[in-house]
Amino acid sequence: MEMVGSDEQMVERALSGDPEAFGEIVRRWERRIFALAFGMLGREEDARDATQETFMAAFRNLRGFRGEAKVSSWLHRIAVNQCITRQRRAKVRSETALEDEAEKNAAVFAMPAEISPARTTEGRERSVAVRRAVCALPPDLRQVVVMKEFEELTFQEISDALELPLSTVKSRLYTALRQLQMRLQKFGERIG
Amino acid sequence: MRTMNERSVCHRSEDLVTYLYNEASAAEAQDFAGHLETCEACRAEFAVFSQVHESILLWRNEALGSAFSSASQAVEVPAEATTDSRQFVRHEQKLPALAALREFFSVSPLWLRGATAFAALLLCVLGVLTISRMLQRQPQVTKNETQPGFSQRDIDQAVQKGIEEGMARASRANLPPKGEIKMIRPQKAENRIQLAANQSQPRSQRSRSLTRQERIQLAADLRLTPGRDEEELPFVFPDEPNQ
Fold first, then answer.
1. Most buried one in A131, A135, B198, B229, CB count within 10 A?
2. How confident is the model at residue A155 (pLDDT cuts 50, 70, 90)?
3. Count: domains in chain B
4. Is B23's Cβ below 8 Å from some Cβ in A?
């Protein structure tokens, strides 16, 4: 059952002991946080874990939430930090294992049942190439791309979430798009 | 896509991304559209960035099309949300068996479908054969289980016991009082041989009429007529039928 009220009001109610209030925040934001985590990490399983950890961390630090920022910005910041932490851990474990595993999973994960039989090999390869290109971006560029493309946040929302100037967000996205274009161009030459 | 290195970079890069993602105001959009007509670098960049944007959207829609459905179940919030023991429960989405089978056949080549069908048919035949053989064996097993088997020794003992009991009964019933025992006259060997020869012959030959000599001998054997050497008998049982 949906609860009425802003995110900030839900936080206040959760802090005052309402057991349903934080659940409502999770229900409102889980899809977006998952999309962010998926774009950042490239794997469904990792994205689920990161989403889970994000809400756990948010719940633990509920009292640390300052009313100055939006709850969505606060959650995004936590999620981005969780993803970056996971990536660092994964990088320590193995530089390439994540990529290889993600590539293996992507073949299954990135194929909805309605499309998969009719999809061409080139289409699959292109999706894999896009995912790899996004995953290969530096974290500061990647998070902007993911927040823009996967969550469809406005530049202002990204700016608020990352606590960055608006111009910085735009220039990061521009740089990220250039890098992606170059990587995908290599892919285009390879399969062309 | 053109190579970035081949293009000069315009200073309006931020306006470019604002315009690309439709976040420019009407005035800003009109202004930048005019700039695109005159700036080749921005026009080229806008074209390739649009392709990149579409590629990412395609990947996102494919990936999150299925991922979102499971993601909505991925994080569940129990009623006691304010306790530290809250758990986020995951649910794995699985295709139903029939749908998975249909998916398998839809993506499989023709030879694989044929091989699968043949293997399934072979399995069915083997299954039917196995079941029929089991059904045939089952009564034997039951019989063996319900009726314990006899060893050769058991049979020998039973036969021996039967013989002894029979002999005991016969001796009790037929044993004459002392002194009444008479010796039975042994038959002449040649007569016995002749009779045996007649019996060993085929039925068609045996059915022929007996000769006189044979009839006399037969009568003597059956005690219908007193033999010539009747007195030579050592002893005779008193209840001999023909006495």
1. A131
2. very high
3. 3
4. yes
Within a domain: A2: no
Contact A184 B1 (CB under 8 A): yes
CB neighbour list of residue A131: distance below 8 Å, 6 or more residues apart: A42, A102, A106, A110, B59, B63
pTM flag (> 0.80): no
Residue A31 lies in a domain: yes
Checking if the pLDDT of B202 tops 90, the result is no
Closest CA to A73 of A168, A128, A143, A176: A143
Q: Model ipTM?
A: 0.71
Which of B66, B74, B77 is closest, CB to CB, to A51?
Answer: B74
If pLDDT is split at 50, 70 and 90, which confidence band does A168 have? very high
- Domain membership of residue B233 as a residue range: 182-243
pLDDT tens, position by position, A69-128: 788 888 888 898 888 888 887 766 655 554 555 555 444 434 444 445 555 566 677 778
Tell me whether residues B80 and A116 touch, CB distance under 8 A.
no
Average pLDDT over chain A, rounded to an integer = 79
3-state secondary structure of B14: helix
Q: How far is B145 from chain A (nearest CA, A)?
A: 56
Which residue has 């023991």 as its token pair? Answer: B85
Mutate to test the interface with B, among A59, A82, A177, A190 (most CBs of B within 10 A): A177
Identify the pLDDT of residue B187. 52
Domain annotation covers residue A1:
no
CATH of the domain at A139: 1.10.1740.10
Cβ neighbours of A60 in B, within 8 Å: 84
B67 pLDDT above the threshold of 80: no
- The DSSP 8-state label assigned to residue B36 in this structure reads H
Helix (H, G, I), strand (E, B) or coil at B77: coil
> How many angstroms separate the CA atoms of B29 and A122, rounded?
35
Contacts of B66 in chain A (CB under 8 A): 109, 112-113
CB contact under 8 A, A34 and B68: yes
Is B10 an interface residue toward A (CB < 8 Å)? no
Tokens, residue A110: 């990135």
Give B133-151 as a DSSP string: HHHHHHHHHHHHHHS----
